[in-house]
Specification:
By secondary structure, the protein is mainly alpha-helical. It folds into two domains: 181 residues, MFS general substrate transporter like domains (Growth Hormone, Chain: A, Up-down Bundle); 39 residues, no CATH class. 65% of the residues lie in helices and 6% in strands.
Length: 270
């Protein structure tokens, strides 16, 4: 009986349009990997058009890969904290805007800044997309989905070289960046309707969760204990086990008890 219940829960949690969402997520990942190698063939044309030196030309490739690989752990942490869907859409929007800026770049400064922004957007998008793939699929389907994901990544690096050469020889080198703009806008318009909503609550943990009532009784309050002197027999004088004992003289001598002065008391000050 528990086995059937668990299977029913898994089927209920499966996203109904997960394969369509996987195709679009793989298209976004393909675009990220494509931009690693698509620039390589276009570097001579970029250098001639923008008058780039050897150092600046090297940074056209390095700025993207450095930001992409160096900030991927941060992107994964943000996906855990803020929600994978939100981080994926943010990274996709940043990558699309940076691609447009790279295509319109009039000089090396704008081009390198755009390539760095592309890398930051890719570092946000890629781990969030992988997190969505692993949570949308269960059982044997997850293995197939991850296989598709890995195959798309490997294909993107190979297609980038071919596509970069074709675009550079045809419309010109800016189109190696312009080609990302319509793809990114189409994905931004379609993915929000297909991706599952983030169930990560906002706000600090103290505001999100309320403390559970404790079943154990509260500890008893500590109170001072007094031992009287010769006149009372409530207990002995304090021994050496207590480290802080004060002799009370609060009882005025004028008060009498059985014809004698009121006894002095020992009070624990722990």
């Amino acid at each position: 009986m528990p086995t059937h219940t668990a299977s029913a829960d898994v089927r209920a949690a499966v996203h109904p349009r997960r394969w369509t969402a996987l195709a679009l997520i793989c298209a976004a990942q393909f675009m990220l990997i494509l931009d690693v190698t698509v620039v390589n063939v276009a570097l001579p044309a970029v250098a001639a058009d923008l008058h780039l030196g050897r150092t600046a030309l090297t940074w056209v490739v390095t700025a993207y890969t450095l930001c992409f690989g160096g900030l991927m752990l941060l992107g994964g942490r943000l996906a855990d904290a803020l929600g994978a869907r939100r981080v994926l859409l943010t990274g996709l929007a940043l990558f699309t805007a940076a691609s447009l800026a790279c295509g319109l770049a009039p000089d090396a400064t704008v081009l390198l800044a755009g390539r760095a922004a592309q890398g930051i957007g890719a570092a946000l998008l890629s781990p969030a997309a992988l997190a969505l793939v692993t949570t949308a699929f269960h059982g044997p389907e997850r293995a197939r989905a991850l296989g598709v994901w890995a195959a798309v990544g490997g294909t993107g690096s190979a297609v980038g070289v071919l596509l970069g050469g074709a675009l550079t020889a045809g419309p010109g080198w800016p189109w190696i960046f312009y080609v990302n703009v319509p793809t990114g806008l189409a994905l931004l318009a379609t993915l929000p309707r297909l991706l599952p909503k983030d169930d990560t609550p906002r706000g600090p943990p103290a505001a999100r969760t309320s403390p559970e009532p404790s079943s154990s009784p509260p500890p008893p309050a500590r109170s001072s204990t007094a031992w009287s002197g010769r006149a009372t027999r409530a207990g002995p004088r304090p021994g050496p086990s207590c480290r802080s004992w004060a002799r009370s003289r609060s009882t005025p001598p004028s008060r009498r008890w059985n014809g004698r002065a009121a006894p002095r008391s020992w009070t624990c000050a722990c």
